[in-house]
Every structure is written in structure tokens, then in C-alpha cells.
Amino acid sequence: MSKMIAAIFGSNILGGNTDKLLNEAIRGAEDAGYTVERINAAHINIAPCMQTFGCMTEPHCFIDDKAEKYYQILKKCDGIIIATPVMTYGIPGALKSFMDRCQPFYMAKYYRKQPMVSKEKAKSRKMLFICIGGMNNEEIFIGPRYTAKAFGSIIDAAYADELLQNNMDEIHNIETKPDVMKAAYEKGYALGMSISNAANENTQS
Fold first, then answer.
1. Sorting pLDDT into bands at 50, 70 and 90, what band is 1?
2. Which pTM does this prediction carry?
């Protein structure tokens, strides 16, 4: 059976610092035996959630756009990597909008009690959260971390690890921090191995 991780990119800047860290994490996950489906949240052109609440009764969104394609990726994946910069002590609007469009997962799990991800699969699904910010303090990550954890709960991907780098206003180029680049790779690899180990344990139990 093929193993797949979904990598959600929250920045609109391809080739920037967040992208470089995500690519290293993806490389690690691939070396752990996973294919990676990348979702560039700022470039997929889907509408924001309009709170029509059609997903309260049906397992899909009533807005007719490409969101269903991404729901399928999130349902099938074995794990999640989210990589984002900090924006005003939160996450960029495009990424937040994408997460909000995953309301069908919320309604299925908490309202209809019919989760889109099976209980067995949910046991081994995990999330790696990568976040960078310009300011030289740790408080900038409080909001993004809470948002990522909430999203993970909704789509059944437990918050398992994180890589946080502040002070980017002075660092400028993340490639001048080889230890952080290495950590991104190692955490991507560790995510894949952790998911595989958990899945094997669930199979044997």
C-alpha cells in the first residue's frame, strides 16, 4: 500500500524561507518511504468558507469549486506537514481560509459523528508544524501553534512535532542556518518513521 503525506504550504512566496524548510521536510519524508502531495494554499484558487452549513447534513461542501480535490488528499494521507510564516501573530489569510474550508471534516466528526477518517487510520496520523517569524521573541508562535493544533484535531492528524524559527528579520536567509535546515529534514524523516511505526503497532494489536 502506498504511503502519502500531505504538505500544506502557507506562504505565497515560492522559493522563500518557508518553502526552503518545507522542501527539506518533504525530502526527509520521501526518504522515510512516503510520497508527498503538496498543497500551495495561496495558489489553489478556492473560495473562503461562506457558512452555508450544507456540510452539516452532507459529507461535502456546497460551494462548487476545487476544494473537493483537497478534501480527498486530506482524507487519504497518512500524515500532514504544515509550513507557514507568522502573520500578525497568526497565520496568512490564504492558509486560514483553506483550513476553514475543511469545515466538512468538522461537521462529520463532531456534529454527525461520522468522521471522514476512520478510527483505525486516525490512530497513526500525525502532523509536523513548521513556522517562521520575523520578530525575535517566542510569543509570535502561540497563535499559529493553537491554530495548527485545532486543525489537526478536526482532520484527525495529531500535533506531533514542530520546528519554529524566530528572528527572521535579522537572519534573512534560512540557508545561513544549516542546523535549522538539517532539523527540517530530520523532522520530516522522523514524521514518516513515526507514522509507519504507529501504523505497524495498530496492525499488530
1. low
2. 0.96
